[in-house]
Design a protein that fits this description.
- By secondary structure, the protein is of the alpha+beta class.
- It has helices at 53-59, 63-66, 72-83, 93-106, 118-125, 134-141, 151-168, 171-181, 195-198, 232-239, 247-255, 267-281, 333-347, 364-367, 381-393, 434-440, 449-459, 481-484, and strands spanning 6-14, 24-33, 36-44, 87-90, 115-117, 204-209, 225-229, 258-263, 296-300, 310-314, 327-330, 406-411, 417-423, 426-431, 468-470, 472-474, 477-479.
- A five-stranded mixed β-sheet has the order 3-2-1-4-5, sandwiched between helices.
- A hairpin with a 5-residue loop joins strand 12 (406-411) and strand 13 (417-423).
- Helix 5 crosses helix 8 (171-181), helix 6 (134-141) crosses helix 7 and helix 12 runs antiparallel to helix 17.
């Protein structure tokens, strides 16, 4: 025999992709012995939690459909009997296996079975193809699916696929491929079965937690680490691969007991959410963040004979429309001093007058002619400060390129959509619908240095400007370009200016 004699083809539908947090809504099983179907069974399952609208849209299974369905505990004996003595066969099998195993665990029962993944089987037998999802197999092999994303419809596709393999490959070739497809992946200790397989191959953020269960609703949920990825599945796997088995990476991997993730709509959405999570959670394995309220700017003081010749002005949480005579955006004193040192070198300014050096008499830069000599009375303080004012004139936030608030829309195929609203470099909030943008446009502006840096760098990419839409004011309210019949207008924001270290 090229394949095991007893196979149980199984598919589950669920309320989501998380094998611990989410629940099963439907199960279908085909039990095959010696190439013949000996049992065919399917049932809806009461999940005990609401089915999200997106999941209902994909599967067609609604809350009303499962309202009178049995709970998994009532079906457990039937499921166990159908799977008994069989190889567990599924597409991305560890995902379905994780849901079944965790469902048994929740009712105090154990479940173990050898697992054959048809994704791995397809890869082993058809290495020339890059896509091995169920839709790709249906198209490539001419399979017939009576109900895609319903449990029995998908199970029947798998049975057709395996029968085609038995007819198309020599038994020895198929046996070797099956052995490879049944090889269990390395499972990180502490993580539930099927979790890594449940991670989507999509961009987003992931959070590592030391607690296996989330806290009660409303309680703080501390995280060990927050990361970002173009492919959540691939990046999280890297953390538990052979390359991460030493030093701090190994320490982190050993402590992880739970993984959460957020699919994001695009690069800007990812950066804004990452910044917010790092601030809120302060994960110990991430680089420490600067305090949100630490941002300040510099304002020159006129007619000062001695240092300091400028003052620091706190700008975090303020409205940029109220700023006057401010230069630079700094998160700490080091950033400000670094900029002043750079300007001193470029414009022969005096480090002592800039407050970078103590003492009396000529500064250390004067001897090497890097200071024009205000400290040695070779020029007047007024002459020095005119050059300083000119040097600082180009430092800070460039004018907002638009007349008012704008919307940045990011949407990913088969993924989330986010609309971000900004005004004068301030983030007013995000929403998923157009109506929400109008309310956000009326929100007060509060400057955040990290958000400014994120937005400025994002806008510096010319291709991103096409995603910007102006919200135009009409009678004190805002309307979208679509409502006004107007075309999209964009400015030409420059790169992040000096002072943004």
């Amino acid at each position: 025999m090229s394949l095991p004699s007893r196979l149980a083809f199984i598919d589950v539908e669920s309320t989501g992709a998380h094998p611990v947090r989410d629940r099963i809504t439907e199960i279908a099983i085909l039990r095959v012995e010696d190439g013949e179907v000996v049992a065919r069974w399917e049932s809806l399952v009461a999940p005990g939690q609401p089915i999200p609208p997106l999941i209902e849209e994909v599967t067609g299974i609604s809350d009303a459909m499962v309202a009178d369905a049995p709970a998994f505990e009532a079906l457990a004996d039937t499921v166990a009997a159908l799977l008994d003595g069989c190889v567990f066969v599924a597409h991305s099998a560890r995902f379905d296996y994780g849901f079944i195993r965790n469902a048994f665990t929740r009712i105090g029962r154990e479940f173990e079975a050898p697992v054959l993944c048809t994704v791995k089987l397809s890869r082993a037998l058809y290495p020339e193809h890059h896509r091995h999802g169920l839709d790709a197999l249906i198209e490539r092999h001419g399979l017939v699916c009576s109900a895609r994303h319903r449990a029995m419809g998908d199970v029947e596709v798998l049975w057709q696929f395996v029968r085609g393999l038995e007819a198309g490959f020599e038994p020895e070739v198929l046996a070797r491929a099956a052995a490879r497809a049944m090889k269990a992946p390395a499972q990180p200790p502490g993580l539930p079965e099927g979790l890594l397989e449940a991670l989507p191959d999509a961009p987003g953020l992931y959070l590592f937690h030391a607690q296996p269960e989330p806290p009660p609703l409303g309680a703080r949920d501390p995280a060990l680490f927050v990361g970002r990825a173009q492919s959540l599945r691939a990046r999280v796997r890297e953390h538990f691969g052979a390359g991460a088995r030493k030093g701090r990476d190994a320490e982190l991997a050993a402590r992880v007991k739970r993984v959460e993730w957020i699919e994001t709509a695009g690069e800007l959405d990812t950066s804004l959410r990452e910044n917010a999570l790092l601030r809120a959670l302060a994960p110990p394995y991430n680089r420490p963040q600067e305090p949100a309220g630490a941002a300040f700017a510099l304002r020159l003081l006129s007619n000062r004979r001695r240092a300091p010749i400028y003052e620091t002005v706190a700008i975090a949480g303020t409205d940029p429309a109220d700023w006057h005579g401010l230069h630079g955006v700094f998160r700490n004193r080091r950033e400000a001093d670094n900029l002043l040192r750079e300007l001193a070198m470029l414009y022969r300014l005096c480090p002592r007058r800039l407050g970078l050096e103590g003492g009396n008499g000529a500064c250390t830069a004067y001897a090497s002619r890097r200071c024009a000599g205000v400290c040695a009375r070779r020029e007047t303080p007024e002459e020095h400060d005119v050059r300083l004012a000119g040097a600082l004139a180009g430092v800070g936030i460039r004018p907002w390129p638009w007349a008012g608030p704008v919307v940045v829309e990011e949407v990913r195929a088969h993924g989330p959509r986010r609309l971000q609203v900004f005004d004068r470099w301030c983030h007013l909030g995000s929403t998923q619908d157009e109506a929400g943008t109008l309310a956000l446009a009326m929100a007060p502006r509060a400057f955040d240095a990290d958000v400014w840096r994120i937005l400025a760098r994002w806008l510096a990419v010319p291709a991103h400007l096409a995603q910007v839409r102006v919200l135009a004011a009409q009678g004190g309210e805002f309307a979208t370009p679509g409502e006004l019949g107007a075309s999209r207008e964009v400015g030409t924001p420059g790169e992040v200016p000096p002072g943004a270290v």
